[in-house]
Amino acid sequence: MKLGLHYWNFATPADPARIAPTLGATARLAEDAGFDSFTVMDHYFQMEASAPADEPMLEGYTTLGYLAARTERMTLGLLVTGVMYRYPGLLAKIVTTLDVLSGGRARLGIGASWYEREQVGLGVPVVPVAERFERLEETLQICDQMWSENNGPYEGRHYRLAETLCVPQPLGRPKIPVMIGGGGEKKTLLLVARYAQLCNLFGTSPDDVARKLDVLRAHCEAEGRDYDDITKTVLMVRPPLADVDAWLADAEAYAALGVTEVQTMPAGDPIAFTEQFAEKVIPRLG
């Protein structure tokens, strides 16, 4: 089972001057402990469901660029990019830049976006849900074209690009892997079947994840896609240090469903959390 650390809280410690060194130290600890990926959110206000909106928050891709210079091995990405926040051609260039500067470690995590307060607050267009998903599909198509030898135009309903030139291209693989986040059964998982190399599901329970994966399997069959070609990942919501045995039992249940990467979220001091996770959980994780 691979491990990801999802860093969501920039309010601890409280001094803004400590944000950068704490973030960097946490990432280095995670890499040394054996984490395979490191992600941050794509938000500009803190999520109100987690903390007050006016708590500290950093722009995601700038943050990943900082982390690229302070790590050597972990995959870096957003969990997940909000489709409304960047024009698709620019997004492809941004992620390509991260990939080149990190030595080929970028991952494009992307979703339909949803946080209306920050969009209204910062002047980002708010469009109906159906249109967000249309824009998400076109963005996926544009990124795929920009990470190919086809430099020609793209004509969509919402986006029109005269040319899709992207130099340098991503390093190796041959394209940056795409992770679509979310468990929407009609649209999100259908787009996973069509375009993604990875899916990311919210780990509320193994039973819920099993149902979502059944839906994904059906979409893959309808689309002629090999279900086993898609890497399944889960963001686990259970705090690992509160009950290590229960967290490990959930991880084992997800592994039995074919999940090969789980992400966990630091609580409180991220450095202390990462140190304790490395001491108490990783040695017991198969």
- From the helix content, strand content and strand pairing, which structural class follows? alpha/beta
CATH architecture assignment name: Alpha-Beta Barrel
As a percent range, the share of strand residues is 15-25%
Write down the domain tally.
Answer: 1
Percent helix: 25-40%
Counting DSSP E segments of at least 2 residues, the number of strands comes to 11
Sheet with the most strands: spatial strand order = 1-2-3-5-8-9-10-11
GO molecular function: alkanesulfonate monooxygenase activity
Organism: Spirilliplanes yamanashiensis
Protein name: LLM class F420-dependent oxidoreductase
InterPro entries: F420_OxRdatse_Rv1855c_pred, Luciferase-like_dom, Luciferase-like_sf, SsuD_RutA_monooxygenase
Protein described:
Residues 23-235 form the Luciferase-like domain. This is LLM class F420-dependent oxidoreductase. Keywords: Flavoprotein, FMN, Monooxygenase, Oxidoreductase. The chain is of the alpha/beta class and 286 residues long. The protein has one domain (2-284): Alpha-Beta Barrel (TIM Barrel). 40% of the residues lie in helices and 17% in strands. The protein is built from nine helices and eleven strands. The protein has helices at 19-33, 60-68, 88-101, 116-122, 129-146, 188-195, 206-223, 244-256, 270-280, and strands at 2-7, 37-40, 75-78, 81-82, 106-111, 154-155, 160-161, 178-181, 198-203, 231-236, 259-264. The strands form two sheets. Strands 1-2-3-5-8-9-10-11 form an eight-stranded parallel β-barrel, surrounded by six helices. Helix 2 packs parallel to helix 3 and helix 6 packs across helix 7 (206-223). It is globular. The mean pLDDT is 97.
